[in-house]
Amino acid sequence: MIAKIFEMMYAGFYQPLVRGMLCIALILAARTATAQISLGNTDGRTNAISTAVPFLRITPDARSAALGDAGMALSPDANAVFHNLSTLPFSRDERSVAGSFSPWLRSMASDVYLANLSGYRKLDENQAIGAGFRFFNLGSIELTDFQGQTQGNVRPSEFSLEGGYARRLNEHWGVGLAFRYIHSKLASGAKAGGSGSYRAGNAFAGDLSFSYISTTEEEEGTGTWRFGAVLSNIGTKISYSKDVQDKYFLPANLGIGGSYTYRFDGKNSLALTLDINKLMAPSPDTVDTNKDGTPDYRQKGLLSGVFGSFGDAPGGLKEEFQELMYSSGLEYQYDHLLAIRAGYYNEHRNKGNRKYLTAGFGLKYKLAGLDFSYLVPAGGAPLNPLANTLRITLSVTW
User: Fold this and answer.
1) Is the pLDDT assigned to residue 317 strictly greater than 80?
2) Which of 167, 201, 389, 393 could bridge 62 with an S-S bond, Cβ 3.0-4.6 Å?
3) What domain of life does the native source organism fall in (predicted)?
4) DSSP string, 235-252
C-alpha cells in the first residue's frame, strides 16, 4: 500500500529505504495494512507524521544544509525560492541562478539523488520574481508480489516546478506568494490491491511567506535582524490510484525563523540563525469511526487536515509540542568571498528522531559561487542512513 511507503519514506526522509523495501512488497500491500500503530496516546511511542512527497521537505541547497537546514531568515540568494520567497526584494544583487546536487542515502544505494535549479530576478527595488525545479531520483527498483514473483523494474522519481512573486511593502516588510506543481511516479503500472494498477500522482500547492528586516548601528559595528514566517505546500491531496480513499496529504508546513547578523567592519560578519518548523498534516491514529478499514485521519479533508493538525495529536498538547523541529546555524563571512558554517538539527525521538550536526563552507569569486555541506549524525543512533550526506551548490550572481 502506498500509505506504508510514505510512513517508511518519512522516517529520516526515506530512512528505511533499503532498495526493495521502498516499493517491492509494500507498494502491493492491501489497504488493511495501512494502520499498524495502536494509539490511545503516545506514552513515549513513536508516532511520526507521514505524508506524500516528503522530498519537498529536504533542504536542497548546501548553504542552508550547512546551517542545520535553517533558511527562512537568511540574507537572500537564489535558493530563497525554496525557503522564503519574500526576502528576494531585499537582495543587494539584481539576479542569480543556482544549481545543487546531493547523493542521497549513499550508504544504502548508489543511484539515489536530489538535484535542483533555482533563480530570481529583481524587477525593481520593490519587486522580484523567482522560479525553481526539484528532481528526486530513487534509482532502479524491482517489484515483486506476495509470492515473490517479479513484476518488473521501475525507476521511481518525483519532481516539483514552482514560481512566485515577492514584493517589499516598505523599508522593513516583504511578502511572497509562490505556486507549485508536483509530480510523483513511485510505481506506475504496478498492480494495486484488488483491481487496477498504480499510476503517477499529481498535485498543486502554494506558499505564502513574510519577512522583516531591521538594521541598527551598534557601538562597534552594525547589527541586522531578520525574521521570516512561511506557510508552505498548502495544496491538493495526491492520489496514486482511482480509489477515492487513497489520497494523501502533502507535507504542508508552518515555519518561523529569525537571525541576527553582526558586521564587525566592512569585511567581517557573523550570523546566528534559528528556524522552528511544524508539519501541518494529521497525526497518525487508529480511530476508524465508520469501520471501513481506513483510519479517520486519512479521510480528513484538506482544510480540516491542515488546520486541524494543531490539535489532533493522540497525546494531546504534549505531543503537539513534540512535533516541532529545530534548525540552528552559525555563519561567518569574510568580504562576501569566504563563508564558514556550522549547524544542528533536532527532532523529537517520537517524531522521527533526526538529530545531526552540519558543517560547510562557501567560496565566491567575481560572479561565481561554490557552497559545500556535510552532515554528521548525532544522538547516538547506531545506524543513520543520512550519515556523511554531501551537498554542493554552484551559483552565478550578477
Assistant:
1) yes
2) 393
3) Bacteria
4) E--EESSS-TT-EE----
